[in-house]
Amino acid sequence: AAKGTGDQLRRWTPALDERSLEHARLGAELRTALDEGQFHLVYQPIVELPSERIVAVEALVRWEHPTRGTVSPVEFIPVAEQNGLIVELGAWILRTACARLADWQVCHGPNAPDRVSVNVSAKQLARPGFVASVLAVLAETGLSTECLTVEVTETAVFEGGPAVTALHELRALGVAIALDDFGTGHSSLGLLQTVPVTTIKVDKSFVDNVTQAGRHAVIAETLIRLSHGLGLTAVAEGVETAEQAAALQRLGYRYLQGYHYGRPVAEPDFEGIAAAA
Ligand code: C2E
Ligand code: CA
Ligand code: CA
Ligand code: CA
Fold it and tell me: Which stretches make up the EAL domain (predicted)?
């Protein structure tokens, strides 16, 4: 048994070193990436039923690395959070997304989305001055606070403290607050009592099997009832098929997001979707 453990360790340790090395490399490259403008944003439609009008878009960051190709935010956001660059990157994301929405509202008039949803990490939220920086961006881009939704994950606000204080301040100013990946954390329901949530984003895992009678459908139904009971908006995430969309609509969902309506792209087709429906 002792020998087995030793073998396991020998196999495991280099892999761990490799991972933390990779982590360190990515971290160093993030600085350059920011300076050289290797990031861009893509936007995924959030549609309202039954019209299928794009009422909002979620901004998602992309890193076009000169040699690695496109690096997923799942890989580099945690690294940026760890080395603190998320503050600068996040500020750039917020400013870029708001400026973009302001442009669309000029170019597309009533077909433009009403709001943009921006993912914000705990580190950003908890920083003194975050709320002031949001107000500065809105003033600079000419957007009202009602045009912005801040998306936070359950883990980001789990510990309370300055992150949650910032959310209360933003909410009081009219910014919408969405709890992301709702239902996958340890304290989803508890957070609804402490965080000034306006929107729950029902996780894709509940949407995946919503067409089959079973647990997922029951949970999806319970969550839409919960949102109605609390006066919250519910957005179903990761809707990939017309069948899922129909099932969700039957359950009472009005806001859907997913590949069925559009992948995240630089320039969503705001005129197209409702017209084609
Ligand atoms: P998220 O906020 O839950 O974003 C939804 C993810 O699901 C996106 O992946 C999106 O492309 C993907 N998705 C949307 N619809 C579908 C669908 O129908 N099917 C499938 N299979 N996937 C779908 P993405 O863009 O790779 O982002 C992954 C995560 O990275 C995000 O999860 C978010 O946690 C983080 N992230 C992305 N952009 C930002 C950002 O600007 N700031 C921060 N702090 N985090 C970000
Ligand atoms: Ca999100
Ligand atoms: Ca999500
Ligand atoms: Ca997610």
Answer: 23-277
Enter the tokens of residue 200: 């729950």
pLDDT tens digits along 161-182:
999 999 999 999 999 999 999 9
3 state SS of 199: strand
Structure tokens at 99: 């400026």
Q: Is 23 exposed, middle or buried (0-12, 13-18, 19+ CB in 10 A)?
A: middle
First and final CA of the chain: distance in angstroms? 64
The enclosing H or E element of 62 equals strand 53-65
Q: Which residues line ligand 1 (CB under 6 A)?
A: 44, 59-61, 72-74, 77, 93, 119, 121, 180-181, 238-240, 258-259, 264
Q: Whose Cα sits closest to atom 15 in ligand 1?
A: 258
Q: What is the DSSP letter of 268?
A: -
Q: What is the ipTM of this complex?
A: 0.98
